[in-house]
Amino acid sequence: MWIVRVDMSDRSYRLQDVSAAYKLLGGRGLTSTIVSEEVPPLCHPLGPNNKLVFAPGIVTGTSAATSARISVGGKSPLTGGIKEANAGSSWAPAVANLGIKAIVVEGQPKDKDKYWLIHLTWDAQAGKPKLEFLPADEYTGKDLYEVFPKLYARFGVKANIAACGVAGEYGYGNSGVCFNDMHQAPTRYSGRGGLGSVMASKGLKAIVADATGGPGVTIVDKALFDQGRKKLADALRSHAITKPKGGLNSYGTAILINILNEAGGLPTRNFSSGRFEGAAKIAGEAIFEGNKQRLGKELYNHACSPGCIIQCSNTWYGKDGKEQVSCQEYESVWSLGANCGIDDLDVTGELIRLCNAYGLDTIEAGTTLGVAMAAGVIPFGDGKGAIKLLHEMGKGTPQGRILGAGTATTGRVYGVTNVPVVKGQSMPAYEPRAVKGIGITYATSTMGADHTAGYTICPEILSVGGKADPLSPEGKAALSRAFQATTAFIDSTGHCLFIAFAILDIPSGFEGMVEEANAVLGANWTGDDVVKVGSAILKKERAFNEAAGIGKEADRMPEFMKLEPLPPHNQVFDVPDAALDSVYGEL
Amino acid sequence: MWIVRVDMSDRSYRLQDVSAAYKLLGGRGLTSTIVSEEVPPLCHPLGPNNKLVFAPGIVTGTSAATSARISVGGKSPLTGGIKEANAGSSWAPAVANLGIKAIVVEGQPKDKDKYWLIHLTWDAQAGKPKLEFLPADEYTGKDLYEVFPKLYARFGVKANIAACGVAGEYGYGNSGVCFNDMHQAPTRYSGRGGLGSVMASKGLKAIVADATGGPGVTIVDKALFDQGRKKLADALRSHAITKPKGGLNSYGTAILINILNEAGGLPTRNFSSGRFEGAAKIAGEAIFEGNKQRLGKELYNHACSPGCIIQCSNTWYGKDGKEQVSCQEYESVWSLGANCGIDDLDVTGELIRLCNAYGLDTIEAGTTLGVAMAAGVIPFGDGKGAIKLLHEMGKGTPQGRILGAGTATTGRVYGVTNVPVVKGQSMPAYEPRAVKGIGITYATSTMGADHTAGYTICPEILSVGGKADPLSPEGKAALSRAFQATTAFIDSTGHCLFIAFAILDIPSGFEGMVEEANAVLGANWTGDDVVKVGSAILKKERAFNEAAGIGKEADRMPEFMKLEPLPPHNQVFDVPDAALDSVYGEL
User: Fold this and answer.
1) pTM exceeds cut of 0.95
2) How far is A150 from chain B (nearest CA, A)?
3) ipTM of the complex
4) Domains of chain A
């Protein structure tokens, strides 16, 4: 397998053999290692010394279930720290099946207004991947729903696409790297942390990958792989949350809306309440029922990427019965819905569609709108106003640029005190005053506020992997630490984090995940090694951040969450600083 | 003497006796002590837990020459660290002569849209200062050139005014606290670091101080005071830079334009060159000649505040022979002129007037325009465009808010890599690649990039207090450290920093400064104590910053200054990190 080194300053590339040190790495483990070893921590995120690293997971490209994840890494323009954001897309196995362990994009062209795309294919004659650099100016300044069909028309249906949107071209702190879904649409995102801007800063508009003829992923121990694959697949197929026609397949991730609302932990109107009176109208059940009404039949969800058993992606159909958008995720309907006081799925659908079109992270977009609403730019609940503001972001007007810069910057620009961010990245859909463990993850994660970095919601809210009182801070530092380390491992395997629901409750599923990875790599990890391997990744990320000036003082909640009790539980965030410091202090 | 504690949450106040620990403190030493002891380092700068501290210097209010400085302190919305910004104004001695050592403004009202002013007078009957809280909504949303006359009309000509402008009301990171000059105009600023917003966040529009009947400043040893006062005054009257009809009195601070341009250290067009072809047209000499032409006579400068010997403030007269603005300072004509590619004093005059009107720091405003020009918002050299943008800032439009948030935020919003800031505060008028010592001060100062924090320009450019090669990094860390510590002492005495020109070259002047302070306080400081006392202040400030998450990784130049050689010397900023770390490491 190869590491592909791309130098955008002269549009050249070379294939490197994978060094021994990188042999056991994949996904997040590999992106974070390369970034921490090669990117100067104090470099400008949009300057020539940042790097953008794409790495499929260890088992990505194999037949392992629910494993088509691509990790994207670099120094984040949003947080100033290290960033890994992963997405599910056929792009990930395509790259893996070309024998590529990582693509490292370096340098930047002198002419900052010109854009290029990379066409990545298999050179059968040479027996290795081949990269062509093609002018891409014709794809810039455009809606990605317009760009993707053009690229498919040009490169064929076997193409897989990674691209940045106009948000990246504008250099927004809120800008993701977009990947195609199973319907060739631009809906899957490595959304968080502004990596779309890093891509654009390198003059790179897209990487079009076609794995036809590629060698596939080498599996060292096929029997062990089959055994592990079966264990994990069986676990996924039997757990209530992950099984076919189970929670996620029926109602999507937005099944959480009612659950979190009930728990008083659904951040509402810029984190001023934990309960939203309109929650039921934007919940997963409402999506299911709404589609049923409009289509005249029950619609179960589909996979975002090949080989997924969970299949949690929905499509939302408009009043005319035509597809409006995929996907109304929990995070998206929350951020652009409850957090903005909006209770209309047609509005959230349109806002999500615009985020996809412009290359924006839906979480950051919704929290930014929430802060803008708190500042009085538009009132809470103003769906039309929100849609107009999204268009401003797409057009790059001054108003749009403020919002595009992200939640923290919008708070600064408007002088708002209640800004729900940690390390410059906005909080996702769980109120830390009502769910203390996830608050600890927000505060301490190397990524800035990020629920996927250590999803303690499992025991705190879902009774998955045990049970913990969400309102209590007791024992939550250790809980968050264990989840953060395990997550770093899962993010390296290439599995979707949602396998966690099954493997936390079903030990054989957990074994299966480890066996798959061992089988591919020829490694001998035990279950105990999962936390060790994950911790090693976290330590690298933490060291990068510290060298970038992001130390333990940045592992803190915004002040308003310590001062203002949150209804309905009327609690503040009361986790002591010492507990926060212990998360990485005792790693 | 008293510390006045103002609580804006219920508009109450109390007078505290000065504790033993505060007896020897004044000015910056006192504001930084109070802030570091009482303000939670991680609080939101615009939230209820920040404090705004006003402290006249130790000798302010006495007859000591050039000593009418007021220090304003708090946690900075611009840097997130501790801030002290001082200004010369009759407001300073007025407060001192009321027997007040500091005013500490705490809390904030529930109703965030209502503003108040404090009328501060002497209560002869009670024998102590008296504060009245009066509604001030009628003064909000207005040009300060409109507000100040209204306040003088209401409170009389003996009033002295401290106020924030609309920039503060909007919560801008660029917002100063404005004080009256000798002509009752709103032209003297504690400009840097956004303290105007802190004032506004407390619902405090103005503090109107009238010292009539006040007890004056107690001097413990009058004979020593007279001796010291004479020594310092003699030095000021004899040094070429500070004497009547000397450099500053003739040409103002803008005398430095030609000197820095010649040295290749005048930052031009957003720090892309050290030389500006239009420098001579905006230099102090051009101001002098321009006024002479328009008035038909030579005009020497005036004092910004009572008792100043140096008298460096100019007034610029427009084409119609009428006063346009005071004061075209070096920093202002540089930032709004050379740094924007503008070579027209009528344009810089108007831009400065608008900064005064709206409550903006001219340095931050000009560097922000420079970054906006680099981003292509308007072209370099576009004076009309610059004036329009200043008006946008005054109106609080989205475009104006971006710029009002300051240089660093504007850089983020437009995705600009070449942003001349340290710790979020923009660099003043000396190019660190051409003058290495001042670059070390920018990098390491507790205040963010700040020339007044350690003005090594004296030996590096002006041959004052010795001589040092500006292009060499050798020995400059120690030089900056010594200047930073000495400056912290001067900023505590209440003397204008410009006494440094005289006291660096004339030892008796230096002695005089120390003797004045000893005489007022009954202290026994020697010349050697100056650095010790100053260092103790710096250590407090540094500790606050570290607790706020601003450590040594923040003591660094922006990356572009290390990568891109600056014409005409084609040098990068080559001071090693270890040298930067030694400034505070060896304090």
Assistant:
1) yes
2) 28
3) 0.97
4) 2-209 (3.60.9.10), 254-429 (1.10.569.10), 435-505+524-587 (1.10.599.10)
